[in-house]
Amino acid sequence: MPLPAASRRSARRPRAPSHATLTRLLAALDGDALDAVIGAYLAERDHIDADGTGSAPRPAIAVDGKALSGSAHRGQRHRHLLSAVTHAPTVTLAGAKTNETAAFRPLLEPLDLAGAVVTFDALHSVKDQVRWLVQEKKAHYIAVIKGNQPTASAQVKALPWEQVSVAHTVSETGHGRRESRSVKTMAIAANLGGIAFPKARLALRIHRRRQESGKRQTRETVYAVTSLDTHQASPADLTL
Prior knowledge:
By secondary structure, the protein is an alpha+beta fold. It has 6 helices and 9 strands.
């Protein structure tokens, strides 16, 4: 006996899972395991020419902490998320529900970082973690240096920056603001004592200017060091 026309159309057309089915599925998943699998897949897909020997750009990953919008309620503070995010295109490779330095190594441990450049702010500029990153993960780094590394900070700031010309300048406009950044670079002479930071090859001085709509212009000077040398990265590559 032939099926009615409506039944034939229903048999041919796949039905999307119901809201209740999707809810049960997502509730049954291990969120951390899913995050790790997706991050590993994205890292593998985007890890192209990681040794920097070909024409493709060297992969760059930023370790960055953010407060989650809307997570503060009933007297509780904002929750923080520490993420490993590719610079371009922007892809989140891994995340952890914390912004503490102790999460830095577990966050990056599962990722293939050989030949990639990992960037991070002063909070994560910890010598033991940087040694692990270079020696164990075979990665390069660009580390912002501030007061939590007082010796390295004093050494970098004391370099003769006034004798060095600006090597690269970039300007960007968007989201109601205009920002420009200029960078100076200086090779670190190991035979003269170098900088008190593991595997540092270049010192950087980045000057930022930001003009937000309706507000006064702000200026900031940031110092950093990197394990890359002048043959491995151009000034444009180092403009954080």
